[in-house]
Structure formats: C-alpha cells, structure tokens
Amino acid sequence: MKLHIVNRSPASSQVHAQAVTAMGPDDRLLLIEDGVQGALPQLVRYFEDIPGRLYALREDLEARGLVGRCDASVQVVDVDGFVQLTEEAEQTVSWY
Amino acid sequence: MMSDSDLEAGELLVILRHGPHGTSWLREGLDAALVAAAFGRRVSLLFMGEGVGALVTGQQAGPLGQKGTAPTLEMLAMYDIETLWVEAEALSSLGLAEDDLMLPARPLAAEAIERAVAAHPLVLTF
Amino acid sequence: MRYAILLMGAPYSHQASHSALRFARAVLARGHRLEAVFFYHDGVHNAARLASPPQDEPHLVDAWAALGAEHDVPLLVCIAAALRRGLLDSREASRHGKAGHSVEAPFELTGLGQLVDLGLRSDRLVTFGP
Fold this sequence. Notes:
The structure holds three protein chains of three kinds. Chain A is of the alpha/beta class.
C-alpha cells in the first residue's frame, strides 16, 4: 500500500487525475497545500474512485478557512497523522 | 493487456510528466534516472500526461541554443535503461501513435500504470 | 524508521518548503530518524545564505540550518542544480572565479547519486514539490 500526496487543486490542475490513475486498490491519497480544495463537497467527486481512502491535512485546511467545509467522506488528519499515514504505507508518491 | 509476469519491475520508477524545453523538470528527472542507472540501479521510466511530448520525433534545439532532452533520451540504452513506458491515454489525447515516438516505449493502459507503480519500491515524480 | 525528504520547491515562492519543514519536525517528534534532506530542482534555493526575508516572516533558510544542526540531519544540495542557479559554496566560487559565495555549512553541495542512495536506503522518502 502506497500513500499518494497531492498538493494541487482539482479546480485548476489535472494532477489529481494522474494520482488516481496510479493508485492501487488499497492505496491512500492525502491532500495537502492547495490540494485541500479537493476535499470540498463540490470537488470531492474527482476522487469518487477511491472511496474511504481520501485524507486532507488539517493545518492546510485551517490556513485556508476550509476546515469546517469538507465533505463528510474526507478524513482530516493533522501533520502527526500525516507522518502516521507514511508509517502505515510502504512508500509515498508525490504529485505536484 | 499485459500480465504481471511481463511487467519488468526495477528498483526505481521515474515518472516524467513534463515536456521538453518549457521547464527543467524533464531534464532534471532524466538526470536522476541516469545517475541511478550509472550507480547500477535498475531504472524504469514512465512518460505521463504532457511528458509523452519528450518522446516525439523531430525535436530540435530551442532558442539561444537550449539543448532540449532528445540527445539525453538517445543515450538511455547506453545506461541500460530499457524499460520505457508511455501512458496510452496521454498518447492518444495528443493524437500521437507509437510511430511518432523516437524510442520504443510501450503504451500502458491505466491498469498497467497502477501495477507498475505498485511494483517499484521507489517512485520519483518529475 | 529512517526517513528522507526530497524538497523541490523554492522558499517564498511555494509552500513546499514550509510543508517539508513541518513534516520534518513531525517525523522527528514521532521518534524517527531523518537521514537527510535533499534539495533538488528549485529546492536548491533553500540553501541561499543571502536570503533576507522580512522579520515578521519565518526565515526558512535558518530554520533548515537549525533543524540540521539540532538533529544532526545532513542538508544535501544537488550541485548541478545549484550551480546553474547561482548557488555556490566558497570552494565552487573560487573554482569558477566568483567573488562571493551563496551557500555555506551546514548545507553541503553534493551529487545526485546521494539522492538515489538516500531513496533506496531509507524506509521512506517523502517528496515535496512546488
């Protein structure tokens, strides 16, 4: 199982699609930086192929005023949780 | 469709997602792949998205003599980098076919890309 | 576990540098070993010793240096990517006949082979791009 990290918003970039294409059936995806926009209910459909495996970084949501606006399907983790996700994965792949 | 057995996995997969000339991503990604190969590591290359433009035939030097990456790509075999893959969907989305490519890169469907990424212990994206 | 970080975003242009520092601190706080931070592509600008941000902004270059010194983390800068972008230590500056230098310890200029080595010997390599 790999952890994929995406830092671009699906509103302006195709990077999320590359990540989803490369993801295996157990892989997880963490949204960081501008990527956290993907956690909004209006954009979360871009990740419908990976149900239950979508995470977003709390600190980056907070900085953007988005922390209370995430779709319920997104699991919000802080930076300690980010490290924990990397511990649980065998390796990470970043998409930027 | 390829099976798992014919997916030749190396130790390092370098994914190249940018075309030549516009940025240094392609050149610097290729440099990482060449160095890894020079150190005796088994390296696979996957050209994804805009990155398939790296393989188009007939590339030239850019303005001010900017070298581009085609000469580097021609050296891949010398470095024993023989596993070359290209995202099939990206190729067709640009209206390109295998005949348009300067190297024999094998088109991979989405499922095969997923397996290629899973099969490599280290994946670097550029 | 043994972690390594690959940073490819320039400070003050992209969040990558902040993200990588925050992640590095969290990795260390969870008791892991950070084998090295490797600076590549525009990430080499994190080693610019002349960086002078306004006082009310974090000094990212100093923050990396402090992290490196405090936790004994090598700060490895790709020499080919750095030289092209005007980032030279005193040795490279004199070799190229330049009057000043722009990189100093604890950052060290090194070859790309170090990145490959780092990627393959660490348990986790986490990349922060622009």
